[in-house]
Structures are given as structure tokens and as C-alpha cells.
Write a structure and sequence with these properties.
Blueprint (H helix, E strand, L loop, with lengths): L2 E6 L6 H6 L2 E4 L2 E4 L2 E4 L6 H9 L5 E3 L3 H13 L4 E5 L8 H11 L3 E4 L6
Parallel strand pairs: 1-2, 1-6, 6-7
Antiparallel strand pairs: 3-4, 3-5
Length: 118
């Protein structure tokens, strides 16, 4: 059985750090001044720190459903039968629910681990 590990950028590691380990990291969305960025892709940590020093208000939301679906479809096309997902905790985000719904719609088995860590 081919297995894939998926997380999100809320874990604090970069997408590239995870890629080196064979783990897929989906970007959270960061909004500031009516613009939305992809965490670690179109807005990096240094940008976030700079914006906070400028007293900008940053808000986050889960990875978009489109990005999750695109990722899961690609994994299915690669023969993945099981996704083990460890996203940001369920108490802070709806990512686990969204991942589960999308995996079920694509008929891919998924195990979501809620770390209960904030």
C-alpha cells in the first residue's frame, strides 16, 4: 500500500524542509490589507515579521480546498491509497474536516491525527 504524509505550514517548518523528507506541506493562507498570500510560498517568515513590526494585522486560514483537492488528486494519480495527515489542530482550524471530506469524495483512505497542540 502506497502511503503519503501531508501536513500544513502551521507546523513551522518550510515546505522545502518537509519535501526533503518526502512529506507534503500545504500552505496556510495569510491575509493582510485585503490581500491573501500562501504561507511559505508567496509570503515568507521574514515578510511576516516585517509586517508585524509595521503593526499590520495578519490573519490566517486553512489551506484552500482547491489546493487540498489538487494535492489529493495528484496523490491518487500517483497510486497513493492512504494519506496520513497531521495538520494544525482541529481546535484552531477546519483543515482536518476539509481534508477528510475531500479524501472521502476522491475515495482515498485518510487518517487525520489531531495533535491538540496550539
Amino acid at each position: 500500500m502506497k502511503v503519503a504524509f501531508v501536513t500544513d505550514s502551521g507546523t513551522g517548518k518550510s515546505i522545502h524542509e518537509y519535501a526533503e523528507q518526502g512529506i507534503i506541506s500545504l500552505p496556510l493562507q495569510i491575509s493582510v490589507d485585503d490581500k491573501t498570500y500562501q504561507d511559505m510560498e508567496t509570503l515568507n517568515r521574514n515578510d511576516c515579521i516585517r509586517l508585524m513590526k509595521e503593526e499590520k494585522v495578519l490573519t490566517t486560514s486553512q489551506p484552500s480546498a482547491g489546493i487540498i483537492e489538487e494535492c489529493f488528486e495528484s496523490l491518487k494519480d500517483q497510486g497513493v491509497e492512504l494519506i496520513i495527515a497531521v495538520p494544525i489542530c482541529n481546535g484552531l482550524s477546519g483543515t482536518i474536516s476539509t481534508m477528510t471530506a475531500i479524501a472521502n469524495s476522491l475515495d482515498i483512505k485518510i487518517i487525520c491525527i489531531d495533535t491538540y497542540v496550539t
